[in-house]
Design brief:
The complex is a heterodimer of chains A (about 350) and B (about 850).
Chain A lengths: L1 H17 L3 H12 L4 H7 L8 H31 L23 H15 L3 E2 L5 E2 L1 H4 L19 E2 L3 E3 L4 H10 L4 E10 L11 E11 L4 H16 L5 E6 L4 E10 L16 E10 L1 H7 L7 E8 H9 L12 H4 L7
Parallel strand pairs in A: 1-5
Antiparallel strand pairs in A: 2-4, 3-4, 5-6, 6-10, 7-8, 8-9, 9-10
Chain B lengths: L1 E3 H4 L12 H7 L3 E8 L6 E11 L7 E6 L13 E6 L9 E5 L13 E3 L2 E3 L2 E2 L2 H4 L21 H4 L4 E7 L10 H12 L21 E4 L7 E8 L8 H9 L7 H13 L4 E4 L14 E6 L5 E3 L5 E3 L5 E4 L4 E4 L3 E2 L12 E7 L2 H10 L5 H6 L8 H15 L4 E2 L3 E3 L7 E5 L1 H8 L5 H10 L3 E7 L23 E7 L9 H12 L16 H16 L3 E2 L5 E2 L1 H7 L21 E2 L4 H13 L5 E8 L2 E2 L4 E2 L2 E8 L16 H14 L5 E4 L5 E11 L2 E9 L1 H6 L4 H4 L3 E7 H9 L14 E10 L4 H11 L4 E10 L8 E10 L8 H19 L2 E2 L1
Parallel strand pairs in B: 11-14, 26-29
Antiparallel strand pairs in B: 1-10, 2-10, 3-4, 3-6, 4-5, 6-9, 7-8, 12-20, 12-21, 12-22, 13-20, 14-17, 15-16, 17-18, 18-19, 23-25, 24-25, 27-28, 29-32, 30-31, 32-36, 33-34, 34-35, 35-36, 37-39, 37-40, 38-39
Classes of the chains: A alpha+beta (about 350), B alpha+beta (about 850).
C-alpha cells in the first residue's frame, strides 16, 4: 500500500503539471481527490493494517492528500493568472469616447437655481404667486399712489378683466403676509412684465427674485448682512455690497443696492461706467403703511425686502452683452452653459 | 438601575402620583426603560411550616412534605391544619418556614392545581423567588425566617403588589444612583417634601479594638473613613432587607454585606466591610492592624471576592493593610478580607475616590461592580461620615455589634464648594417662558440647592459671596440673580446654564411653548418635482428654453385651434399683435425655437421649457405649469461604434413614460387626437381619470406652417407635453414602501413567434402576465423584425419571460408547464406561429 501511494503521488504530480486549462484542473482534482479516487480507496483499506501501522499510514495519506491539494490549487491559480495576461493590442486612447451627453439649463434658470440654493441655505422659503395680478396686490397694497406714473399703460401691461401683469415680484410679499403671520422669511422668484421695448438692457418679460424677512427685531443691519452674504456667494468672497438712499413707495427707508464691480473689482471700467459699483436692485425696510394695510402690528414687527433682477445677474456673471440673447433660445448659446449646474 | 416603588415610598409620598410616575420620571430626565408589575399573590399564598420532608421512593429529588398552614382557609387541610405537598427543591427540609401556594393560585408562570405526583396527592407548591415573580432565582424554595407567623400572607411578607422601574441613568448624574436621588428629583417635580432616610441613633464609641489609618494618596482618595465594629453576629438579614435587595436586583449575602448594599442603593454611595481579624499592621511592633490607602506595588496580586486573580501595578489604587492589598479601591474587596460566617470584628469603609482612576482600573482589569459603576461617575467626598453613620446604625441594629469604634476620618482637603448665581430673566431668554423667583427657589431648594441671597449677577463660580454687589429694588430685575450653594452630590452643576437645565427639566419640557421659527410657506414637494422634471429632460440631452409669456394668437390657429376651444387672456395694450395674448400652451413657441435652430443649421435638436401657461376660466384664470419638449434628429451623435439612428416613437415614448415612472406614477395610455399631431401617432396618459400629458409626432402641415421644409427634413419631430401641476398633485399622495427582496432565483425563458399585425404587443404582454401573476414577474420584448421570409402583414417578436416564486425555488416542471400554457393561450387567442 505504501508503494502504491508513492506511485500515485508521482503520477499526480506529472498530470497536474500538464494541466493547461480550468477544465483539466477540475478533472484532475476529481481523479485524485474525488470520492472514487485511488487515494480515497486507500483510506477505506486502512482497516487491513494492524493497529500499530494504522496511525503512521493515516498520517502519510493525509500528507499526500494535502500535497496534491496544494499542487492543484497552485496550478489552477497559475492557469487563471496566465489567462489575465495583457491583451496583445490595447485600445487607441486617442479614438473618441462614446458621445452620450446631457443637455443643459437655460442661463436664467441656472442663476435662479443658484439664488434659490443660497437663500434656502439661509433658512428662507420659496413662495410663488400669480403673474396675472390685480391692482391691489401690485400697487395699492404696496403703498403706490393712485396717480403714480408706474400705473401708466406705457409702463404696465393690462389684461382683460381689470387685471394686469405684475410689474415686480413684490406682489408675493403681499400675498404671503395676507396668509401668514410673522416670522416670515421668503424669496419669491418669478416673471415680471413691463411695457419696455426689447433692447440690450430691457425686455418686456423679465425675471426677479424678491426677498422678504419680517420678524421681531429685524433692522437694516440684517438687510446689509444678507446682501453681503448673497453677493459673496454669487460673485465671490471679495465682492462687496452697499446700499444707498433711494425711493420706493413700499419701503421706508428705501435703498438701492450695489455690488463692487465684478469686472474691474471696483477700480472702474466700462461695465461699471467707471464708478466701481454695479446696481443690483431695490431694497429697504418694509413701510409701516404696508404692514397697516395687512394688519401686522408695525410696532412689534419690522422687516426688510429687496428685489434682484435675474437677467442682470446672469448677464454680469456670464458676460452676456445683450438681454435679447437670453430669449432667442439659440442652441449655440444654450450649449455654452452645459457646464453650469 | 432597578427601583421598587415600595422602597421609593420610604422617601417620598408618591401614592397620589403612582399612575403617572413613569411619565414623571421620564420627563424629569430619568428614562424609564422598563416597568415590571409584581402582582398581588392573594390570600392563597402564605407562610407555612414544613413539618416533615421525606424522600419519595424511586425518585432522586422529590420529597413528600407535610406542611402546616395554620389558620389559612383550605377545604382539604386536616384537623391539625396540615396538608401534604410534593416538593423537588434541594433545600426543602423539615422544620423550615417556606412559602406555600395553595391550589387555585395564579402565579406569574403557572396556575397551581391539586395534583397527583407518583400517586401521591399534592395540595399546592412550595415556591422559589422566581415562581413568586420576585427575581430570577430558582435555586431553591424561599427560606423564611423561623419566627415568621404561620399563615402570614406572602403579599405582606414581600410588600406586594409592587412596581419595579428599570431606569437608565445618564452618566452625568451620579446622584441618581440611589433611591434618595430619584426621590429628590421627583420631589422637585411633584412639589412633595422629601422624607430623609431614618437615622438610627449611634451609641458612644466604646470599642477597645484599635485601627491605624494611613492615606498615601490623597489625590486619588480625597477622603477615607473607617470604623471598627466589635463582636458582630454574621447572619442572614431580616426578610424586609432581603426583599428590598432582591427587588432591586441584588442577591442577599449576609447582614453586614447586605447593609452595605442597602445603604449603597439608598444613598447611592458604595461602602465596603473588611474582616478586621484578617488585617495586619505595617509595623510588627504594633499590636493592632492598619488600613493603608496606596498604589499597588508592581506585580502585586489580589484575589477578588468573586475569586479572580488580579495582577496589579501602580496605576491601581488599593486599600491595603500593613502588608498586602485587601481591596481594589472602589471596585472590589479581596477574598481573604471578606465577611464570612466566621467574621467577628469588622472595619467599615466609607470613602471617596478619583473617578478617572476607578474607571481606568475597572477598564484595564475588566472588572466592574455596582461600586465601580458609581465611583467612576464621581461621588462627593462630602458625605462619607453621614453614609458611614447610616450603615453603622443598621449594623448596630441588625448585626448585634457589641462595640463600635470612633470614626477614623482622613479628609485632608475639604472638597471645594460651588456657589452660582441664576437669573429668572435668563431662564425666560433660554427656555422660552417666564419663571417666578419663588418657583425657581422652591424647585431648586427641593433639589437640595442652598439659597444664599439675591445679588447682581456675576458669571461663573463665585469665590466669595461677600464680594457680590447686593441687589436693590431699583435694579433692573434682569440683572438680579439668586445665589445658591450647590450640593456636593451634584457634580454635574458648575454653570448657570446647568441650573437652567435643571429648572426646565423639572418644570417640564412639555411646558415649553412652541414658537414659530419657520413657517411652512414653501411647497417643497412641488419644488422638488419641478426640479426633477427639468433634470429629467436635461438627462435626455435636452436644452432648456425660456419664452415670453405672451404669444401670437395666429400661431394657435396654425396649430389648428380656434379661440373658442382654448380661450386666451388678451393684453389690452400689447406691443404688437404677435405678443397680444397670454400663452395657453408651450408648444407654439417650442415650434418657433425648433424652426429657429433648424434655420441655423442645427439638425439634432432637443428643447424643453418648464413654465406657466395662462388659462381663462369662467370665473377667474389659472396659471398651471407645463413641461413641454420638442425633439428631432439623431439619438446619438455620430460615432464610429454606434450606427446613426434617428429618434422615433420609441424614444419619445420612453422619454415621456420614463418621467412618469421615475416619479412613481403608474399610468395608462390612450390614443390622443389633436390637429397638430399625426393621427395614430399620438398618445395621452392618465392616472385614474386625470390626464398627465401626451406625446406625438408633429404633422408636416404644422412644420410647414412654421417655415420648416418638411420634405427635406427627413427626420421626425416629436412633441411631449406634461401637465406638471396635475403630476405634482398626484405625487403628493404616492409613497414608496419596501418589499422584501425575493430569496429564490428568477428563471428567464425566451419565446419567439410570428404575430399578425391585427394584434398588438401589449395584449400579448398582458395576457402572459395574467396567466399566473404570482409567477410571471416580467415580460420584455427584445427583438422585432420583418423580412422577406416573413409573410406580409406579420412580424416576428421575441420575448423574455421572467419567472420567480416568492416562496420556493422553481422546478423545471413548473416552468415548462407555464411555458406550455403560454404557447397554448397565445396560439388560441392571437394565432401566433412559434418560430
Amino acid at each position: 500500500m505504501k508503494d502504491q501511494l508513492e506511485l500515485m503521488l508521482k503520477e499526480a504530480e506529472q498530470e497536474i503539471a500538464l494541466c493547461s486549462n480550468p477544465n483539466d484542473i477540475l478533472n484532475t482534482k476529481a481523479k485524485y481527490l474525488g470520492k472514487k479516487s485511488a487515494l480515497n480507496s486507500l483510506y477505506s483499506r486502512m482497516k487491513e493494517l494492524s493497529a500499530e501501522e494504522r496511525p503512521a499510514f493515516g498520517n502519510q495519506l493525509n500528507l499526500v492528500r494535502a500535497r496534491i491539494e496544494s499542487l492543484i490549487t497552485e496550478r489552477g491559480n497559475a492557469i487563471k493568472e496566465a489567462s489575465w495576461a495583457k491583451k496583445a493590442v490595447v485600445f487607441d486612447s486617442s479614438m473618441p469616447g462614446m458621445p452620450l451627453d446631457r443637455g443643459g439649463y437655460h442661463p436664467l434658470s441656472i442663476v435662479r437655481r443658484e439664488i434659490d440654493e443660497v437663500f434656502l441655505s439661509m433658512g428662507f422659503e420659496i413662495a410663488e404667486a400669480f403673474d396675472i395680478e390685480d391692482e391691489f396686490h401690485n400697487f395699492d397694497a404696496l403703498n403706490t399712489p393712485q396717480d403714480h406714473p408706474s400705473r401708466n399703460l406705457a409702463d404696465t401691461f393690462y389684461v382683460e378683466g381689470g387685471k394686469l401683469l405684475r410689474t415686480q415680484t413684490s406682489t408675493v410679499q403681499i400675498r404671503v403676509m395676507e396668509s401668514y403671520k410673522p416670522p416670515i422669511r421668503i424669496i419669491s422668484p418669478g416673471r415680471c412684465y413691463r411695457n419696455d421695448k426689447p433692447d440690450p438692457s430691457h425686455s418686456p418679460v423679465f425675471h426677479q427674485v424678491e426677498a422678504l424677512v419680517v420678524d421681531k427685531g429685524i433692522s437694516m443691519s440684517d438687510l446689509q448682512d444678507t446682501l453681503q452674504n448673497f453677493a459673496a456667494i454669487m460673485f465671490g468672497p471679495n465682492v462687496k455690497s452697499r446700499i444707498r438712499p433711494h425711493f420706493f413707495p413700499f419701503t421706508e427707508p428705501s435703498a438701492e443696492m450695489d455690488i463692487s464691480c465684478v469686472v474691474c473689482g471696483g477700480s472702474g471700467c466700462r461695465v461699471c461706467k467707471q464708478s466701481g459699483w454695479l446696481e443690483m436692485g431695490g431694497a429697504g425696510m418694509v413701510d409701516p403703511a404696508v404692514f397697516d394695510i395687512l394688519g401686522i402690528d408695525s410696532e412689534i414687527y419690522t422687516g426688510f425686502a429687496f428685489g434682484l433682477g435675474i437677467e442682470r445677474i446672469a448677464m454680469l456673471k456670464y458676460n452676456i452683452p445683450d438681454m435679447r440673447i437670453l430669449f432667442e433660445n439659440d442652441l449655440r448659446m444654450l450649449r455654452q452653459f452645459k457646464g453650469e449646474m | 438601575m432597578r427601583i421598587a416603588l415600595s422602597w421609593l415610598k420610604r422617601y417620598l409620598p408618591v401614592s397620589p402620583y403612582e399612575a403617572g410616575l413613569a411619565d414623571h420620571l421620564t420627563f424629569a430626565g430619568i428614562e424609564v426603560e422598563g416597568i415590571e408589575e409584581l402582582k398581588a399573590l392573594g390570600h392563597t399564598v402564605v407562610a407555612a411550616k414544613v413539618i416533615s420532608a421525606e424522600p419519595v421512593p424511586k425518585t432522586d429529588h422529590l420529597k413528600l412534605c407535610v406542611v402546616d398552614i395554620g389558620a389559612t382557609e383550605y377545604a382539604e387541610k386536616d384537623e391539625n391544619n396540615q396538608i401534604q405537598v410534593i416538593c423537588g427543591a434541594p433545600n426543602c427540609e423539615a422544620g423550615m418556614m417556606a412559602v406555600l401556594a395553595l391550589p387555585g393560585t395564579a402565579l406569574k408562570e403557572i396556575t397551581i392545581a391539586k395534583a397527583k405526583i407518583r400517586g401521591i396527592h399534592s395540595h399546592g407548591m412550595l415556591c422559589s423567588e422566581r415562581e413568586l415573580g420576585l427575581s430570577e432565582n430558582h435555586a431553591g424554595i424561599i427560606h423564611l425566617p423561623e419566627d415568621t407567623a404561620i399563615g402570614t400572607l406572602a403579599d405582606q411578607l414581600f410588600s406586594l403588589p409592587d412596581t419595579i422601574f428599570e431606569l437608565e441613568i445618564t452618566p452625568n448624574r451620579s446622584d441618581l444612583l440611589g433611591y434618595i436621588g430619584i426621590a429628590r428629583d421627583l420631589s422637585a417635580r411633584l412639589g412633595l417634601a422629601l422624607i430623609p432616610p431614618e437615622a438610627n441613633a449611634l451609641p458612644a464609641a466604646n470599642s477597645s479594638l484599635k485601627l491605624g489609618l494611613i492615606n498615601e494618596e490623597p489625590e486619588l482618595c480625597p477622603r477615607y473613613t473607617a470604623r471598627v465594629f466589635e463582636n458582630v453576629k454574621i447572619q442572614e438579614s431580616p426578610l424586609w432587607l432581603k426583599t428590598a435587595l432582591i427587588k432591586s436586583g441584588l442577591r442577599p449575602v449576609n447582614n453586614v454585606v447586605d447593609i452595605t448594599n442597602f445603604v449603597m442603593l439608598e444613598l447611592g454611595h458604595p461602602l465596603h466591610a473588611f474582616d478586621y481579624d484578617q488585617l495586619e499592621s505595617r509595623d510588627i511592633q504594633q499590636d493592632y492592624p492598619d488600613i493603608v490607602v496606596r498604589k499597588a506595588f508592581a506585580n502585586e496580586t489580589l484575589v477578588t471576592l468573586d475569586g479572580k486573580n488580579m495582577v496589579l501595578g501602580d496605576a491601581n489604587l488599593v486599600i491595603a493593610d500593613g502588608k498586602k492589598a485587601s481591596a481594589l479601591a472602589g471596585v472590589m474587596g479581596s477574598k481573604h478580607s471578606g465577611i464570612t460566617g466566621q467574621t467577628r470584628n469588622i472595619v467599615l469603609e466609607s470613602a471617596a475616590f478619583h473617578p478617572g482612576n476607578i474607571r481606568r482600573t475597572s477598564y484595564n482589569l475588566k472588572l466592574s461592580s455596582d461600586s465601580s459603576y458609581r465611583f467612576e461617575r464621581h461621588l462627593s467626598a462630602r458625605y462619607a461620615k453621614e453614609i458611614s453613620d447610616r450603615a453603622a446604625g443598621l449594623i448596630m441594629l441588625l448585626a448585634d455589634a457589641k462595640g463600635m469604634g470612633e470614626l477614623l476620618d482622613n479628609y485632608p482637603k475639604e472638597e471645594e464648594e460651588i456657589i452660582l448665581g441664576v437669573r429668572t430673566s435668563r431662564f425666560e431668554h433660554l427656555i422660552g417662558f417666564p419663571i417666578s423667583a419663588e418657583k425657581m427657589r422652591e424647585t431648586l431648594e427641593k433639589l437640595g440647592f442652598c439659597y444664599l441671597q439675591d445679588a447682581q449677577y456675576k458669571p461663573g463660580i463665585v469665590k466669595d459671596i461677600l464680594n457680590l454687589q447686593m441687589a436693590s429694588p431699583l435694579d433692573d430685575p434682569r440683572t438680579i440673580a439668586q445665589y445658591y450653594r450647590i450640593p456636593g452630590y451634584r457634580k454635574d452643576i458648575s454653570r448657570e446654564a446647568d441650573i437652567l437645565e435643571e429648572l426646565a427639566r423639572l418644570i417640564g419640557y412639555d411646558k415649553v411653548p412652541k414658537i414659530t421659527l419657520m413657517q411652512q410657506i414653501m411647497d417643497r414637494h412641488a419644488y422638488r418635482i419641478q426640479k426633477k422634471a427639468a433634470e429629467w429632460m436635461v438627462s435626455w440631452g435636452a436644452y432648456e428654453t425660456l419664452n415670453y409669456s405672451f404669444t401670437d394668437p395666429a400661431q394657435m390657429e396654425a396649430l389648428g385651434f380656434n379661440e373658442s376651444e382654448l380661450p386666451y387672456i388678451q393684453l389690452l395694450n400689447p406691443q404688437s399683435m404677435n405678443q397680444s395674448v397670454m400663452r395657453v400652451s408651450l408648444i407654439p413657441q417650442l415650434l418657433t425655437n425648433l424652426a429657429y435652430n433648424l434655420n441655423h443649421a442645427e439638425r439634432d435638436i432637443r428643447l424643453f421649457e418648464l413654465g406657466k401657461v395662462y388659462h381663462k376660466t369662467s370665473s377667474a384664470h389659472t396659471e398651471p405649469k407645463h413641461l413641454g419638449a420638442i425633439c428631432t434628429g439623431r439619438v446619438y451623435p455620430e460615432h464610429f461604434k454606434k450606427p446613426s439612428q434617428l429618434l422615433d416613437y420609441s424614444w419619445a415614448k420612453g422619454c415621456f413614460e420614463g418621467l412618469l415612472s421615475s416619479l412613481g406614477i403608474v399610468s395608462s395610455m390612450s390614443p390622443y387626437q389633436t390637429p397638430y399631431l399625426a393621427e395614430g401617432e399620438a398618445y395621452a396618459y392618465f392616472y385614474q381619470d386625470i390626464m398627465l400629458g401626451f406625446y406625438g409626432r408633429v404633422t408636416a402641415r404644422v412644420l410647414e406652417a412654421w417655415g420648416v421644409d418638411s420634405t427635406n427634413l427627413k427626420q421626425e419631430v416629436w412633441l411631449m407635453n406634461w401637465l406638471l401641476d396635475d403630476i405634482v398633485e398626484i405625487c403628493r399622495n404616492l409613497a414608496t414602501t419596501y418589499t422584501n427582496i425575493p430569496k429564490f432565483p428568477a428563471v428567464t425563458r425566451d419565446l419567439s413567434f410570428l404575430l399578425s399585425d391585427k394584434y398588438r404587443y401589449g395584449e400579448i404582454q398582458e395576457t402572459i402576465l395574467a396567466l399566473d401573476p404570482a409567477l410571471v414577474q416580467r415580460v420584455q420584448v427584445f427583438d422585432e423584425y420583418r423580412t422577406k421570409q416573413i409573410p406580409e402583414g406579420y412580424r416576428s417578436l421575441s420575448l423574455h419571460i421572467v419567472l420567480q416564486d416568492q416562496e420556493k425555488t422553481l422546478t423545471d416542471e413548473r416552468v415548462d408547464a407555464l411555458m406550455a400554457s403560454v404557447q397554448k393561450t397565445l396560439s388560441q387567442k392571437y394565432e401566433i406561429t412559434m418560430r
